[in-house]
Amino acid sequence: MNIPAVSIPMWTSLMNPPPHKFRNCKRVLILCAADPGRVQALLPAPLEATGDFVVISWITIGEVEGYVDARNISINLPCRYQDQHGKTCSLEYIDVDMGLTAGREMWSWPKKGGDFVWQESDMGIHLECARRGHTLFKADVTFKPGAPTVDWQAAHGAPDLGSTNLQVRHLADSFEHQPHTAEVLQVPTPNFVLHSSVPVDATIEVTSGPQDSLSELGPLRVVAARYEHSEFDLASGTVIGSVTL
Question: Which of the chain's ends, N or C, has fewer CB atoms near its CB within 10 Å?
Answer without folding.
Answer: N
